[in-house]
Amino acid sequence: MSNRQAITDGAATIATAIRVIDPDTDASTATPCADFDLETLVNHALGTTAALARLAAKEGLDPDDPWGSRTEAFDGSWPERLADQLEATAAAWDDDAAWQGSLDLGGGEQPAGSIGEMAFVEVMVHGWDVATAAGRAVSVPDQIGDELLSAVTSSAELGRKMGAYGPEVSVDGAASSFDKALGAAGRDPQWRPAG
User: Which of 10, 33, 69, 163 lies at 20 to 30 Å from 152 by C-alpha?
Assistant: First the structure.
């Protein structure tokens, strides 16, 4: 499976789980992403995935808000908006041209393929964070999990230095590739909301 196919199929899987979330879910709900409550995480995911979609289209980042950190979209339609944005980001990366060359992240050029992997990780891990916080199970096919594990593993050291990944969480050797990828990104695959 190619990265292009994995991000497209993975985003569809995550979006399906997110679309059925009750939009009235408490904004202060804890998430597996320890620094973010649900509202903060949804706004973050909407902002970063929109920025990553712009990069795939070879558009520059917004000079005033490059990573969408000022996004405020936690309203009655947020599950649909987030699901749509995750799929739009995947669609933007479902083009060979998106993975070619280099992209300017504002602090220098980076290989487009590395940014594509970052987009894949962002869609899958933050999508899982949101779905899991809202009590929705996500079942990711093994082929997608394998690709995600490869993407997380190749970026883990840098991801931790940048604060994008938490400390690695130990996961049973018999766990799925998706669960191993979550652990490598600093998530506990067994995390569930309280109550």
Answer: 69
